[in-house]
Each structure stands twice: as structure tokens, then as C-alpha cells.
From TrEMBL:
GO molecular function: aldehyde dehydrogenase (NAD+) activity
InterPro entries tied to this protein: Epimerase_deHydtase, NAD(P)-bd_dom_sf, NAD(P)-dependent_oxidoreduct
Organism: Flavobacterium aquariorum
Domain NAD-dependent epimerase/dehydratase: 2-234
Protein known as: NAD-dependent epimerase
GO cellular component, one term: cytoplasm
Lineage of the organism: Bacteria, Pseudomonadati, Bacteroidota, Flavobacteriia, Flavobacteriales
Length: 329
């Protein structure tokens, strides 16, 4: 049987559909019944309602060790998708605890229960930092602790250290490092917020650059890696490197709304981040634009997907076309 953590998130929910379509027996962890509603709605969106009832749900939490005891019974493969994504400095401790300690718990249960293979969903945020003489980030680019990193990036890097510990202790592991994941059904979180903001009349764009990938490609690669003999490796998953401006314009065109009109320079983004900090401290609201988020909006990082393309001979879906597809679901 296969265990999926984070089955109520974008990647985990799409992975559940993919695994069930492949005929796998699947168990998924959920924290509370409300959290499963989006997953069920996603199955309905894809007209896969009949498959949903095949999931064996187990209530649990990656930070609650007693609940994991039941979840790991008779499990031979684990897809660890659960993570906390936040760039609010006030949530730093919880982000690190969830992503690092939670991953350590999953690793420990895999080792204790003789799980055959573990696939961990990391992020391009956990990849290395380019030295001056290089121009593209690969799986071999070294992490530089002296460079600025978001709390989220640090937590995902720390989680990877737990995965490599598992490898040293005899567990077969693979790590995927997706770029910004585009997919339907979760419009109030992650990349889904980009669609919601554009739909509601987002006025600003930036000229930052990063890697993007369709969620369908992410789950397909994860499944192929787990079925292969490949282990002890990590793979960058991006379809292409895209300028934020172009991505936002594609979203606007697909939604048939106005494109963002104004270029937000690094100076403007930092000023908005400072105003957000003031507002957060005065009104006690959650940060909407942290320093790390502002910085990433104008950073121009290029990522290579050559390793996974060579390993699995995969052809990634064009992100701009995928945006059109999911807005028409």
C-alpha cells in the first residue's frame, strides 16, 4: 500500500488522482475533515468522483507521532508532500518545525516500518546559490549559508538533510525540487493566489524570473521515479523559466480580464514590503508581502531541468498552454 502525506494540498490531491488511476492502493493522511473538502472537490472537477471513495483516509499529523502509528501499517511506499508554505516571519518557528521535524518523523517511521522507498517533495528554494562564474542553477549547485534565504527555503533545505539521513540508514529515497507549481482547485493558496489576484484586478507586475511547472507533470514524474530503480538522487522539476510579467499576462488572458498595467520596480516592491510590515504590526494581520517575497519577485534565477529529462526522457507541458486548460475546467 502507498501512503501520501499532504493529500489535502495541491500536489498531494493531484497525486492521489494519479495513483488511483494507476490502480494503486492508497492511504492518505488528513488533519481534519474540513481539509479533505478541497481534495474531494478536485476529484469532482476532473470527474473522478468514483475514485475518491477508494482512498483510505487516516486522521493524523506529521508532528503528532501517535497518529502516525496507524498510518504506517502495511505501507511499502511513501510520498511525502506535506509541508507548510509561509513567508511570514511570524510563522518562522512553525514553518521550520513542520517542514524539518515533520520530515524527520516521516523518515523515522519509514525506517521503523521497513518502507521500501520514499519520495520527498522539496522545492527549488532548497537548491543552491550561484557563484559569480555560473549562470544556471542545477541539482549540483552548492547551498551557501552566507546568502540570504527565506525561512521557507531554510526549512526545505533542512528537510532534505533528513532525507539524506534516511538514505545513509538504508532507505531508498528520491527528492523532487519543483519550481512554482501551477494547478487548479486551490485558488486561495500558493500559485492559486496569483490567479485569484489577477481575476480581482491585480495592477502590478514585476520582471523577476523563476521556474514554473504544471502540477500534472510533478505528480507524473514522482510516480515514474518511485516505479524506477533510481534512488539517492534529487531532480529539479520545471517546464521553463518564465518572467513574472509574462506569466501574469497569460493568466489574465486566460481569465479574459485586464492585464496588470504597472511595473513594480525593486524599489517599489521593497517599499510595499515595508508598508506591509507596518500594517501587520499595527493591525496584527498576517504578512502579505515579506522581505523574502519582495526579493523573490524581482530575482532572476535560471534553473535547469536537464537531469530529469535525461533520466526519464520526459517532455514537460507548456505552462502557458496549461494555464488556458485549467481555467477552462
Amino acid at each position: 500500500m502507498v501512503l501520501v502525506t499532504g493529500g489535502t494540498g495541491l500536489v498531494g490531491a493531484h497525486l492521489l488522482i494519479h495513483l488511483l488511476e494507476k490502480g494503486e492502493n492508497v492511504r492518505a493522511i488528513y488533519r481534519n475533515l474540513d481539509s479533505t473538502k478541497k481534495t474531494k472537490a478536485l476529484f469532482s472537477l476532473y470527474q473522478k468522483n468514483g475514485l475518491y471513495d477508494s482512498i483510505q483516509w487516516v486522521q493524523g499529523d506529521v508532528l503528532d507521532i501517535p497518529t502516525l502509528e496507524n498510518a504506517f501499517q502495511e505501507i511499502n511506499q511513501v510520498y511525502h508532500c506535506a509541508a507548510m508554505i509561509s513567508f511570514d516571519p511570524k510563522e518562522e518557528a512553525l514553518v521550520r518545525k513542520t517542514n524539518i521535524e515533520g520530515t524527520a518523523n516521516i523518515v523515522n517511521f519509514c525506517l521503523a516500518n521497513n518502507v521500501k522507498k520514499l519520495c520527498h517533495v522539496s522545492s527549488i528554494a532548497a537548491l543552491g546559490d550561484l557563484p559569480e562564474h555560473e549562470s544556471i542553477i542545477t541539482e549540483e549547485t552548492e547551498w551557501n549559508p552566507e546568502k540570504p534565504h527565506s525561512d521557507y527555503a531554510i526549512s526545505k533545505y533542512g528537510a532534505e538533510m533528513e532525507i539524506w539521513r534516511a538514505l545513509q540508514e538504508g532507505l531508498e529515497v528520491v527528492i523532487v525540487n519543483p519550481g512554482v507549481i501551477i494547478g487548479p482547485g486551490f485558488w486561495d493558496q500558493g500559485s492559486g493566489e496569483l490567479f485569484t489576484r489577477v481575476k480581482n484586478g491585480l495592477s502590478f507586475y514585476t520582471n523577476g524570473l523563476t521556474g514554473f511547472v504544471a502540477v500534472s507533470d510533478v505528480v507524473d514524474v514522482m510516480y515514474q521515479l518511485m516505479k524506477s530503480s533510481i534512488h539517492g538522487e534529487r531532480f529539479t522539476l520545471i517546464s521553463e523559466n518564465i518572467v513574472f510579467k509574462d506569466l501574469l499576462f497569460s493568466i489574465a488572458d486566460a481569465l479574459k480580464v485586464k492585464r496588470p498595467k504597472y511595473h513594480a520596480t525593486p524599489f517599489i516592491m521593497n517599499a510595499l514590503s515595508n508598508l506591509d510590515w507596518v500594517s501587520s504590526n499595527i493591525f496584527g494581520q498576517k504578512r502579505q508581502l515579506s522581505k523574502a517575497s519582495a526579493r523573490s519577485s524581482y530575482t532572476t534565477d535560471l534553473y535547469s531541468n536537464e537531469k530529469i529529462k535525461n533520466a526519464l526522457n520526459i517532455k514537460f507541458e507548456d505552462v502557458h498552454n496549461y494555464i488556458k486548460e485549467i481555467t477552462n475546467l
